[in-house]
Amino acid sequence: SQQGEEDPQALSIQEGENATMNCSYKTSINNLQWYRQNSGRGLVHLILIRSNEREKHSGRLRVTLDTSKKSSSLLITASRAADTASYFCALARGTSYGKLTFGQGTILTVHP
Amino acid sequence: DARVTQTPRHKVTEMGQEVTMRCQPILGHNTVFWYRQTMMQGLELLAYFRNRAPLDDSGMPKDRFSAEMPDATLATLKIQPSEPRDSAVYFCASGPHGGSPQETQYFGPGTRLLVL
Fold it and tell me: Which of B95, B102, B109 sits opposite A31 (nearest CB)?
C-alpha cells in the first residue's frame, strides 16, 4: 500500500492524559505530515517532519519519525476535550509535486 | 484570514443530474487539489493542478468527472451524470509552494454531496 497505515483506529482517553497515534508506511518518503479533522470540517495541517529529521515539536504536539522502521508517531500531551478529532498522517514522496497520500486516520475522543 | 472556500456546502440531487462544485483557493497559492472522502475509502485524491495546469487526474473516473481551473481564483469539479455512488464529501485544498515535496495543504470546508 502506498498510504500510511494508522494505529489505533480509535482512541478514547480522559482530559489531561497523553494520546499517541502511530503511522506506518512501506515506501520511501520525502516527508510525513499530520493533519487534524474536526467533525464536519476540512483537514488542518498540524506538523511536517522531513525524512532527515527524527523529532519535531509544536506546542503540545510531538512527532517522531523512524525511517529505518518506516514509522511515525504523533503524541498529544495533556489532552483537552477540544482535541477530539480525527488525525491523519500523509506521505509525501520526492517526485510527488506536492501530492500527499493520506492514511485512514485515528479517531481520538477526549472525555472531559 | 485567508481560507479556501467551496460552494455549495451541501448538494442533494437525483441520479443522472449534473453536479458542479466550485473552489476558490487561497490567493497566491498555485497548487490546487480535489479529494473525495467516504467512510469506506477514506480520503482519495481525484486531481490536482499546478499553475492552473492539470498535473494528475488519475484518481478521477474519466467518463463522468472533469476538473478545470478556468482562472487562478476558481477551480471546478463536475460530475455528469451523477450516480448514487458519488455521494461523498468533496474537498478542495490549495498549497503555496508550487508543488514542492514540502507542500502543505490548506483545506476548504468541503461540499457534502448526496445523489439519490
Answer: B102
Q: Which of B42, B100, B109 sits opposite A41 (nearest CB)?
A: B109
B103 with A103: Cβ contact below 8 A: no
Contact present, A86 and A107 (Cβ < 8 Å)? yes
Whether B42 sits inside 8 A of A103 (CB atoms) is: yes
Q: Which residues of B touch A104 (CB under 8 A)?
A: 42
Length of chain B (residues): 116
Q: Could you tell me which chain A residue has the CA closest to the CA of B55?
A: A97
Condensed to tens digits (0 to 9), the pLDDT of residues B53-100 reads: 988 888 898 899 999 999 999 999 999 999 999 999 999 999 987 777
Cα–Cα distance measured from residue A55 to residue A65, given in angstroms and rounded to the nearest whole number: 6
Tell me if residue B92 falls in helix, strand or coil. Answer: strand
Return d(Cα B21, Cα A2) in angstroms, integer.
Answer: 28
Closest CA in chain A for residue B47: A99
Q: Could you give the C-alpha distances from A94 to A47, A49, B51, in angstroms and in order?
A: 18, 14, 19
- The C-alpha angle with vertex B50 and arms to B48 and B51, in degrees rounded to 5, equals 140
CA distance B36 to A24: 23
Phi, psi of B99 (to 5 degrees): 85, 20
Q: Cα torsion for A64, A61, A49, B50, to the nearest 10°?
A: 150
